[in-house]
């Protein structure tokens, strides 16, 4: 699995994956979220399968001087496993090794569970 940064030609894929988040089912609402994030400089990443090159997840992050805030994270229903989510978070943590991963009210439970799993390793 591989962390892939946003490119314009991935826009429809990102919109599709984000539409699985409750409250973001409407295309215009999802597009507004992506446009706002890119407009303020928040990176967007995709999670790509090494074997077949398919994308299975995406995350919108906000970078602070000492933190990486996971604003949105979503996976295709067929890829929603702890293994995939934790691998994605680990890749983000490795990319921004000098910063702490944090979550919003919606994403913090995932971050907390990832931290517990990460500490055991």
What does this structure look like?
With 121 residues, the protein is α+β, with helices and mostly antiparallel strands. It is 40% helix and 26% strand. The chain contains 4 helices and 5 strands. The protein has a 5-stranded mixed sheet with strand order 1-2-3-4-5, sandwiched between helices. A hairpin with a 6-residue loop joins strand 2 (44-48) and strand 3. Helix 3 packs across helix 4 (108-120). The protein starts with a strand and ends with a helix. The model has no long low-confidence stretch (mean pLDDT 87).
Assembly annotation: single chain
Terminal residue distance: 19 Å
Element pattern in H and E: EHHEEEHEH
Q: Which sequence of strands runs across the widest sheet? A: 1-2-3-4-5
Basic shape: globular
Mean pLDDT: 87
- Unreliable sequence segments: none
Provide the helix percentage.
Answer: 25-40%
Largest sheet: 5 strands, mixed
Structural class: alpha+beta
Task: Please report the number of helical segments.
Answer: 4
Our Rg estimate from Cα atoms comes to 14 Å
User: What fraction of residues sit in β-strands?
Assistant: 25-35%
How many individual β-strands? 5
């Amino acid at each position: 699995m591989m962390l892939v940064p946003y490119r314009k030609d991935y826009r429809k894929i990102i919109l599709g994956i984000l539409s699985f988040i409750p409250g973001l089912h409407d295309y215009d609402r999802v597009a507004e979220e992506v446009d706002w994030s890119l407009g303020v400089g928040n990176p967007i990443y995709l999670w790509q399968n090494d074997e077949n090159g398919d994308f299975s997840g995406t995350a919108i992050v906000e970078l602070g001087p000492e933190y990486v805030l996971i604003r949105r994270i979503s996976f295709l229903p067929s890829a929603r496993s702890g293994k995939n989510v934790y691998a994605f978070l680990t890749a983000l943590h490795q990319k921004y090794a000098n910063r702490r991963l944090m979550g919003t009210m919606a994403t913090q439970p995932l971050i907390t569970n990832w931290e517990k799993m990460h500490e055991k390793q």
